[in-house]
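Honest question from a wet-lab person: if I give you the sequences of every part of a complex, can you actually get the arrangement of the whole thing, not just the pieces? Trying it with mine:
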Amino acid sequence: MKLLAVKVECSHELEDGLSFFMQDELDAQGIESRKRSDFVAEGQKHDSSLVELDDIENLPKDLELTAYFNYENADKKELVKKITDKIAEMKGYGLNTGEVSISTKEVADEDWNTAWQKYYHVIDFSRHLAIVPEWEDYHPAFSDQKLIRLDPGLAFGTGGHTTTQLVLLAMERALVKPMSVLDIGTGSGILAIAASKLGASHVLGTDISDEAVTAAKENIALNDVNNINVRKANLLKDIDDKYDLIVANILADILLELIPDLDSHLNKEGKVIFSGIDYLQLPKVEKALAENNFEIKMKMQEGRWIGLLIARKPD
Amino acid sequence: MKLLAVKVECSHELEDGLSFFMQDELDAQGIESRKRSDFVAEGQKHDSSLVELDDIENLPKDLELTAYFNYENADKKELVKKITDKIAEMKGYGLNTGEVSISTKEVADEDWNTAWQKYYHVIDFSRHLAIVPEWEDYHPAFSDQKLIRLDPGLAFGTGGHTTTQLVLLAMERALVKPMSVLDIGTGSGILAIAASKLGASHVLGTDISDEAVTAAKENIALNDVNNINVRKANLLKDIDDKYDLIVANILADILLELIPDLDSHLNKEGKVIFSGIDYLQLPKVEKALAENNFEIKMKMQEGRWIGLLIARKPD
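Yes, you can. This is the full assembly:
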């Protein structure tokens, strides 16, 4: 299979938003991110006098995001236009886009399949959680660290995204007993797997995309867990049960659609975790939560991204 | 020993700030907090039709904070004046003080020693951490939850304060390998104990107060840990070593004093956790961090309180 590679050079401020957009909206098969700051940080880990940044081949000016599309279905001109429009929209939010350039290239799938693996490594997320690519041999510093095995090429949620990480942290806080968990927009299944490893009694992961449902099932099979179900569903519309914990890592506008249906799907003393919220969109999410009788227990922010731990207001 | 009990009735918004003030600045021996919302929440855990709030004796209107002082040393009039001034100051920050009333009462120490215990219970803080009063028999839902044993009457840091909890969460995130940890203003020693239980290689806890140093040592002795030292020190002034992780849960003005000395006490790739910051004071902390070449990796907020996970800026 041939692939179309679309390379966007721009400011690192666009990384999360643009990755999200290209994977979720434009159906990219996979995304590579090369950031100047990663090379700088990597250099600092060694004796810095030995690492000359100028010697690195094609060192990115700031951020280089390369998205891979199925060549047969991809409309090159339209993709470039949509990405250009998205960047203009993000600029409208007040983000610094940097000097933007977009280029395209035709590549053989084989190249990509091996090439992108080198950009995914173990994410030593926290004291008790690490995300480990399927092919990596990893020896945790603490033997009781829980490992989430993932084929990060499969769907959104490689563990590297800030929005995913904010949910992981909030789950470590909230999951103090065996709870039932609903993961809306499960993507790669990473959050469903994490919930199970943390001790959820059972987990349902849902996604509107067939590809995500398949990917989540494949990732779940890589992990030693047996209490996760995955099925196709559009937010809470086809869900009948109630849960102790509902997590949703999707964009703010979709969270807004979800909020009115939360109460009827949440057990007594249930909690909700939201992520995927740009800080500029926080006020409207806060307003909708308050109007629906929810309150924010804890707010987490990394860069522009906000995650929320939410509960019903006390009467 | 006789005690002077000073009871402040006011809005729950003052709870953390006023507790901090009375314990740290006015040297209260202990503080009891009774909040209407706690009784409401407790009622909801049972069949709510059976719990009638009106039946509860002396149900607080909103918040009742009772601080206990050594009767011999306490100047009743001056204490009331200082608390009144503090509340006026907090009102100036924009807090809702509610209807404030302050009353004093003389009590026998024996009454208090038994009375306050009923206000401290297990804090099921997170999936992997719980704070357990010395006298409680606790069976965690997850057998690998790490327990911090505490005599919460001893010094500041009972585990119930938001500011303490934000540090606990940030430590769960940051302590991904055996690190050396410095806990500045250790109080009860709770954060030093947590760091050790999470797998720190060694921990130094410091406090400017002799009472806190004694209390921390007593609490450490309740826990099965052997790599914590505690000593009296004024912030970083008497500290020579460098650490992988520095935590400081103290008020914003004291954090500002600390910031210029951080760099020289932090190992390469070291991290810093700050808590005790009222959100109105965040801008000046952010400014001082930026001026000293630090950046905020993650911001956590609960109510008015902010906690920060901090690292050096990449070059």
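Two things worth pointing out. Confidence is low (pLDDT under 50) at residues 42-55 of chain A. Chain A touches chain B at residues 37, 40-41, 44-45, 124-128, 130, 141-142, 144, 169, 171-173, 175-178, 198-199, 268-269, 297-302, 314-315 (CB under 8 Å).
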